[in-house]
């Protein structure tokens, strides 16, 4: 918790997870409760986005929610983790990683409902794409500060969970 002599730390929420698990819904809700939200952000540019200390307002730096996933060009979970560890060491930042997971059967249902193709399953069944993505994202899932499994959530229920969890963060500064 910052003292009167120290500036408030900028809150950065990195939002990732399996495609179809709720990242975009969560980012929209975060934006509705006052976070600046960016979806499909090239994570390699994260340092450039955050290094803008001159943009602090009288209330401090804006709270940023940054969404990224396995479709990002050059996506490599180990490099993401290293980049975030470096940023987390900065005394002016408070970085939290939020990971969305969902059961394979529910993800398949969601893909069928929207008639979208999984980007890792162009010529194979959607389950194969989900399996490959789950394997690719395993290091980020293990490393994340917060894990939300959306298997049994409707869109409205997910919005409510995000609102409850992250309005509290905005007030208290502590998510864990």
Main traits of this protein?
176 residues, disordered N terminus, 6 helices, globular, alpha/beta
Describe what this molecule looks like in 3D:
- The structure is a single chain.
- By secondary structure, the protein is α/β, with parallel strands linked by helices.
- It has helices at 23-32, 46-50, 77-88, 104-114, 126-143, 155-172; strands at 10-17, 36-38, 64-67, 93-101, 146-149.
- The chain has a 5-stranded parallel β-sheet with strand order 2-3-1-4-5, sandwiched between helices.
- α3 packs parallel to α5 (126-143) and α4 crosses α5.
- The relative contact order is 0.21.
- Mean pLDDT is 84; it is low at 1-5 and 172-176.
In short:
This protein is α/β, with parallel strands linked by helices. The protein has 6 helices and 5 strands, in the order E-H-E-H-E-H-E-H-H-E-H.
Mean pLDDT: 84
Q: What is the helix/strand order? A: EHEHEHEHHEH
Number of strands: 5
Distance between the termini: 14 Å
**Residue fraction in strands:** 15-25%
Largest sheet: 5 strands, parallel
Overall SS class:
alpha/beta
Number of H- or I-type helical stretches: 6
Q: What is the rounded Rg?
A: 17 Å
Helix content: 40-55%
Low-confidence stretches: 1-5, 172-176
Shape: globular
Report strand order across the widest sheet. 2-3-1-4-5
Q: How are the elements arranged and paired?
A:
Elements (H helix, E strand, L loop, with lengths): L9 E8 L5 H10 L3 E3 L7 H5 L13 E4 L9 H12 L4 E9 L2 H11 L11 H18 L2 E4 L5 H18 L4
Helix pairs in contact: 1-6, 3-5, 4-5
């Amino acid at each position: 918790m910052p003292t009167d002599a120290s500036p408030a730390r900028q809150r950065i929420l990195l939002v990732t997870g399996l495609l179809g698990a709720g990242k975009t819904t969560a980012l929209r809700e975060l934006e509705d409760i006052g976070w600046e939200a960016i979806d499909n952000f090239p994570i390699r540019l994260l340092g450039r986005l955050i290094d803008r200390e001159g943009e602090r307002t009288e209330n401090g730096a804006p709270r940023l929610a940054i969404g990224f996933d396995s479709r990002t060009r050059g996506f490599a979970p180990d490099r993401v983790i290293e980049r975030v560890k470096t940023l987390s060491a900065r005394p002016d930042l408070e970085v939290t990683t939020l990971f969305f997971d969902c059961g394979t059967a529910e993800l398949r249902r969601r893909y069928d409902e929207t008639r979208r193709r999984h980007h890792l399953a162009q010529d194979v069944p959607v389950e194969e794409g989900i399996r490959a993505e789950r394997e690719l994202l395993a290091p980020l899932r293990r490393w994340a500060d917060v894990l939300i499994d959306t298997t049994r959530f409707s869109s409205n229920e997910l919005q409510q969970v995000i609102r409850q969890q992250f309005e509290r963060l905005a007030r208290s500064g502590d998510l864990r």
